[in-house]
C-alpha cells in the first residue's frame, strides 16, 4: 500500500504568533522488523521508515529516528509554536532510501 | 529462606489462589464496559439478550483509533479500494466504475446485506466472491486471491459505503437451509480444545479467556484493521484464527462452510451498524 498518500492534519492553519499548533501525521508503511521469518524459514529483511522530519521553510521543527519496534503505519502527533508563515514539509525516509513527502501551508498572523 | 518458611509461603500462595479462583468472574476496573451499549434483539427467540458490537469490548485506546477516521489506518485500504474502483483491468478494459459508476451511490447498503442469494449460482455469495465474479464475468480479469491486499481493500471500500447502516442479511427463502447449516456449525464443538463458536461468543462474552477479553464475535466491522496484524483482516481470516486457536482444522477460505457461518454470524448481528473499517486488537 505504498501508493497511499500520507495524511497530515493541523488543528488550525492560521495561528497568532506564540500560539501552539497541534500536528498529526499518519503514513502508510509495512514497517517490516527484520526479525520475522517467512514460510521457508528465511529472515525477511528489515524494511522500516528510519527517519521522520518536519521542516518549516527549510528550518527543522521536529524529527526523530524510528526503530524496528514501531508498528506498521506510524502515527506521530506533536505540538510546536510557528514563528513565521510558510510551508511545512514532512519527510519520511525508509531503509531503501525511498522518500515519502508531504507539505502543508501554515499562516502566522 | 528456611524450608519451613518456604512451605508457609507456598500454603499462603495456594490459599490466595483458591480465593481468587472462587471469586465470581467480574469486570475489573480496567476492563471495557460493554454493558448498556447493545441493541435489542428482534424477538425473544434470539440467542443473545442484547446485540453488542465488538467495538464496546475493546479498550478506550483502541476505540479512539476507530473514532477518528484520520487516526484509523484502515482508511489506507479504503483509499486503495477507491483507486482500484476506477482503474480498468482485464481483457474487457473495464473497471468497477464502468458499470457501477459512483460507489457512494451504487454500493450503499450492498455490504450490509451480504451474503446474498445468487440465482445464477444457486448459492449465497459474499462480498469477496461477488467482486471476483464481477471481475471474471464483466471485466474478464483474473480473480484476486483470497487474502490479497487488493481484494481486501476492495471489500473494505465497498463495505465502507454501508457504514452506519444496519446489518440486514436475508435468511428466508432459499437462504434458509444455509442459515440452518451456519447455525449448526456455530454450535458444533471443534478442535482439540472442543469449543464451539457459541462456547466463547454466546456463553462467555464479557469475560476473559486468558488474556483475551471475549466479545460476541460480531462481524459488523469486517474487514477490520487488527492492531495485532497491523493490517486489514477479512472475516474468514479471523474465523480461521479462531478455529486455529481451538486447535481445529480451519475450513478453506470462501468454502461453503465459512459462507454458511458468515451468513449466520451476520444474522446474529442484525441491526448493528456496519463499522467497516473497524479497529480491533
CATH superfamily of chain A: Immunoglobulins
- Report the strand count of chain B: 7
Structural shape of chain A: elongated
The helix-strand sequence of chain A is: EEEEEEEE
How are the strands of the largest sheet of chain B arranged? 6-5-7
- Overall number of structural domains of chain A: 1
Helix content of chain B: 25-40%
Oligomeric state as shown: heterodimer
State the distance separating the first and last CA atoms of chain A.
38 Å
- The sequence of SSEs of chain B as H and E is HHHHHEEHHHHEEEEHHE
Class of secondary structure makeup of chain B: mainly alpha
What is the number of strand segments of chain A? 8
Tell the overall outline of chain B.
Answer: globular
> Residue ranges of chain A: pLDDT <50 for 5 or more in a row?
none
| Main pleated-sheet profile of chain A | 5 strands, mixed
Strand content of chain B: 5-15%
Strand order of the largest sheet of chain A: 2-8-7-4-5
CA gyration radius of chain B, whole angstroms: 22 Å
Description:
The complex is a heterodimer of chains A (109) and B (281). Chain A has 109 residues and is mainly beta. Chain A has one domain: Immunoglobulin-like (Sandwich), CATH 2.60.40. Chain A is 0% helix and 48% strand. Chain A has a five-stranded mixed beta sheet, with no helix packed on it. Chain A starts with 6 loop residues before the first strand and ends with a strand. The radius of gyration of chain B is 22 Å and the shape is globular. Chain B has two domains: 27-67 and 166-280, Cytochrome Bc1 Complex, Chain D, domain 2 (Orthogonal Bundle); 74-160, Cytochrome c-like domain (Cytochrome Bc1 Complex, Chain D, domain 2, Orthogonal Bundle), CATH 1.10.760.10. Helices cover 40% and strands 6% of the residues of chain B. With 281 residues, chain B is mainly alpha-helical. The interface between A and B is medium-sized, with 14 and 13 residues.
